[in-house]
Amino acid sequence: MGILLDSASVEDARRAQELGFVEGITTNPRLIAETGRPGLDVLSDLVEVFDGDVFFQLTANTVEARTDEAWQAYEIRPDKVVIKVPTTTENLAMVSKLVPAGIQCAMTAVYSPAQAYLAAQVRAAFVIPYVNRMKRQIGEGAMDIVRDMVRLVAGSQTQVLAASFKSLDEVIETRLAGVDCLTMPLDLILAMGNHELSQQAIEDFARYL
Ligand code: E4P
Q1: Atom of ligand 1 nearest to the CA of 185
Q2: What distance in angstroms lies between residue 8's CA and the mean position of ligand 1's atoms?
Q3: What average pLDDT does range 119-147 have in this prediction?
Q4: I want to staple 148 with a disulfide (CB 3.0 to 4.6 A). Which of 105, 113, 166, 178 is the partner?
Q5: So what's the pLDDT on residue 61?
Q6: Could you tell me whether strands 22-26 and 105-110 are parallel, antiparallel, or unpaired per DSSP bridges?
Q7: Catalytic residues, which ones?
Q8: CB atoms within 10 A of CB 67
Q9: Inter-helix orientation angle 89-98/113-121, to 10°
Q10: Cα–Cα distance, 135 to 169 (Å, whole number)
C-alpha cells in the first residue's frame, strides 16, 4: 500500500474511492466517535463504499474482550478488515494468536524500534508510528526512530505505515525516511496533488486556447 485515508467518515471514504490512488482507510476511536455511531456499524459502511483495506482499532478493556471484538470486526468483511491494536506486550501476545488464525493485524501507537521489531516477530502486517505526535513528544530524534523502524522490519512481512500527519512537509520527510505507507486526513491527500505554480501554469496555457 502507498497512500491511505485517515478518517471514519463515509463521505471521505467515497471521495477517496473516487480518487483512485488511495489504497486503504485507517480509523481510530476518536475518528469513530466523531461519526456519533457504533464502531462496527461505521466499519460495515466503510467496507461497502471503499474497495481497499479498512483498519479498525480495538477498544475493549480485556484481552479476552479485545479478541472477541477482533473476530466481530473481521467477520464483517474478512478480506478487507485489518485489526489495529495499540502496542503493548499484552497486545503483541494477542496478535501472535490472531495472525496464525488468519486475521491481518496492525500494531499502532508504535514509538520505539524495539516495539516495531517485536511487531515483525509476531507477523503483524503493519507497524504504525505517529509522526507528528513523536515530533511533539520526543523531538529531534523522531525521524531517526522512524528510520530505524524501517530498517528493523525490512525483509519481513511487516510494513511501516506512518500516521499522525499535520503537514505535507511531514509526509514527504517520512517517505524520504524510507516509509512505504502513509495515512493522512483527506485535506492533506487533496492538497498533495496541487501547487499554486501549477495552477498559474494552467492559467498561462489557457490564454492560448
Ligand atoms: C492512525 O491510524 C492514527 O490513529 C492517527 O493518524 C493518529 O493521528 P493523530 O495524532 O492526529 O490523532
Answers
A1: 6
A2: 11
A3: 96
A4: 113
A5: 96
A6: unpaired
A7: 84
A8: 18
A9: 20
A10: 13
